[in-house]
Amino acid sequence: MDAFLLQLLNGLDKGGAYALIALGLTLVFGTLGVVNFAHGALFMLGAFCAVVFNRLLNIETVTIDETQTTPWGTPMEIREPYVQSMLGDFGAFLVDYSVPISIIIAIPIMLLIGVIMERGLIRHFYNRPHADQILVTFGLAIVIQEIIKHFFGANPIPQGAPDAVNGSANIGAMLGLEGFISYPWWRLIYFLFSLLCIGGVFAFLQFTTYGMVVRAGMRDRETVGLLGIDIEKRFTVVFGIAAVVAGLAGVMYTPILPPDYHMGMDFLVLSFVVVVVGGMGSLAGAVLAGFLLGILQSFASMTEVKSILPGIDQIIIYLVAVAILLILPRGLMGRKGVMED
Amino acid sequence: MSKLNLSRRGLLKAGAATGVALGAPLHFVKGAYAQDQMSCNMPTGSDVVFGFNVPQSGPYADEGADELRAYQMAVEILNGEGDASAISSFSGASNLKGNGVLGKKVTYVTGDTQTKSDAARASAQKMIEDGGAIMITGGSSSGVAIAVQSLCQERGVIFMAALTHSNDTTGKDKKRYGFRHFFNAYMSGEALGSVLAEEYGKERTAYHLTADYTWGWTQEESIKNATEKQGWKTAQAVRTPLGAGDFSQYITPVLNSGADVLILNHYGKDMVNSLTQAVQFGLREKQVNGKDFQVVVPLFSELMAQGAGSAIKGILGTANWDWKLDNAGTKAFTQAFGKKYGQPPSQAAQTAFAQTILYADACERAGTFYAPEVIAALEGYEHDGLGNGPTLYRADDHQCFKDVLVVQGKDDPKDKFDLLEIRKIVARDQVTYDPSIFGGDLGPADAKQC
Fold it and tell me: B193-224, pLDDT tens digit by residue?
């Protein structure tokens, strides 16, 4: 029972990350018809917003102390954290909560990056074949990666969760179960955060006039245009929102996975599988498939399962994807006519 | 008709004089016989080319960059342009005169292994064919080392491996043209086993998470054997895909397995992620079988320890070398490297530096670049003063034998270069093993043309 519960939580947590990335991917595909292979890079850029914010908070003043020497004989550099010594306790609080606070910074930055990416490059490829779109966005992803590597190196950069939620929660006691079943607080928070983000995007599209127009545009772009609505502008905003969602997923993921320049690529392929299984362009499908595949992947890693089917944990997602596409060629919730021309 | 009067004494004198006349030039030109023999890319002009095949992209790019720093420093020293104090305590220092190698200026070409076997082989091939490299060195993965070593054997080019820790490199996949200065998984196991028993007791049950490739398999086998020899039990050994990222689904089964030690046979990014996540899951606060739960990382990399942040504190592991070692060779190298680059060298840099110096020294001792004779000069070579203490390049498997360090994550590091402290220096004799246990065949030392 314990093992089952823990793997379920792992799956939900993992599924949350898949769903958040896939949601943005499918949103862009559904509105702009673009297969965006740079979407993983947006996830990574979000994570690096947290890294940059943390670095800013840890800027140091360097003074040379001639009286002390390094082990290699040069004068010792004495480093003092600038923000913390200037702001005292508030500075220490900022450093401790740097990951959640960097959400505030990541939103405008990712929105801006998304809009620049769409206006500056991707819009030139709307009427080009999907293969061209894949090539250019994949190339863009590599360029972004290499820029990040140039400035931050190739090694992962650790980001801590706030001290208050750094440990594990005794979920056994919370659920009234026997025994000590612990699960990291931050992973629970990430799961709730992913639900909040997904809910936010759906609410925006479902309950606002702006969202209604976007949905109408997704169905029939020409008619919406004929009604005098500048749908292109709205789609640019949608691209920006997709970038923000991917970015926030990245920011909050940093305490779980120390970010490096390649983390976006690691998630990209899986997220595409999620989008395809969910149904190209289907938002609800992406979310459903994200959680489904995350949970399946976790259960496939259980020792009991692996003893019957060794190596199943590494291929389960692709096996299920093949099976679903054989039975439901448009994916779980795919619509007719999408990518079928 | 004149008659040839040849007395016995005259004949002897003439014979001796002829012998001296013919033999003298060869005596003064060391290795002149060998100069007539040619192996792949032997220099004909005034330069000799080394090939530095390091990860310049991919997950080990930072380690590759540090290796490259060490290689550049070694080349400068060999050419008499760098800070020669770095090799002042090396036992073979007098062979290296600062005029290149055998009087030929050292130049180099570089390649990017990308930490992918096929890419590494392709870049090594390019350096041999287009760059004219007489020796290939570098790398930060056993998969890459084994692939490049096999290519070098085919091409007759000496391969001085850098960071590779799998037993297979100098075990079942060993090659006559391949040499490893770095230690291996077996040595890590032997060094760490007794320390683990001292620290955590003999009544322990271990759970292994293992990277699913050559290094992971041999690391798991070695540490498992070493700990079981100390009385530990093994609950389970689970293979994890390389680059899994999120290890949560592999860590949660540990919680209920009955194990009280988690051994992470992971390296690099996998180590950073699995260790960080194991700590997040509260494993280190857990009590099992009435004992504190422990996490062990058999192979440490100080560059990757930076990625794990505070999760590394108190964790035991092993290292090939550490810049804080208290010996003349380490101090000399660290000072020169620190002055040049403003930071201490990593163990990747140290092994890269040592390999370049050892190759140059072997050429000088052999008096030739002719590969079979350089190989012979390296085989069984006992040396000292490069930072690892007395070191033997064993002839049977081309593995270096030297002391192994047991290190532990520091509780209160001064800076990012001070993450590990040396807990114990395990003597070379304790980690030496019979070369036959891993099988393999070095193969021929025949020279090849390329």
Answer: 999 999 999 999 999 999 998 899 999 999 99
Chain A positions in Cβ-Cβ contact with residue B60 (cut-off 8 Å): 154
State the pTM of this model: 0.84
Q: What is the pLDDT of residue A339?
A: 58
In angstroms, the CA A313 to CA A20 distance is: 22
Q: Measured between alpha carbons, how far is A261 from A142 in angstroms, rounded to an integer?
A: 10
A206 Cβ contact partners less than 8 Å away, ≥ 6 residues apart: A215
Q: Which of B246, B279, B287, B322 to mutate to test the interface with A (most CBs of A within 10 A)?
A: B246
pLDDT band at A65 (very low <50, low <70, confident <90, very high): confident
Using an 8 Å CB-CB cutoff, list chain A residues near B293: none
Residues of A in contact with B246 (CB under 8 A): 14, 256-257
Architecture in CATH for domain B47-183+323-402: 3-Layer(aba) Sandwich (3.40)
The interface pTM score, or ipTM, of the predicted complex is 0.83
Pick the CATH number of B186-319 from 3.90.550.10, 3.40.50.2300, 3.30.160.20, 3.10.420.10: 3.40.50.2300
Q: Do A71 and B245 touch (CB under 8 A)?
A: no
- Asked if the structure places residue A306 within a domain, the reply is yes
Percent of chain B clearing pLDDT 90 (strictly above): 76
DSSP string, A269-326: HHHHHHHHHH-TT-HHHHHHHHHHHHHHHHHHTSHHHHHHSTTHHHHHHHHHHHHHHH
Closest by CA to A290, choosing from A330, A323, A320, A322, is A320
| End-to-end C-alpha distance for chain B, whole angstroms | 58
What is the end-to-end Cα distance of chain A in Å, rounded?
48
Rounded Cα distance between A106 and A51, Å, is 11
Eight-state DSSP code of residue A208: S
pLDDT (tens digit per residue) in A91-149:
889 999 999 999 999 999 999 999 999 999 998 988 888 899 999 999 999 999 999 99
**Which chain A residues are within 8 Å of B245, Cβ to Cβ?**
257, 263, 266-267
Per the domain annotation, does A63 fall within a domain? no
CB contact under 8 A, A157 and B307: yes
**Interface mutation target, options B280, B325, B326, chain A, most CBs of A under 10 Å:** B280
What is the rounded average pLDDT of the residues B316-325? 96
Instruction: Identify the burial level of B375 via C-beta atoms within 10 angstroms of its C-beta, where 0-12 means exposed, 13-18 middle and 19 or more buried.
Output: buried
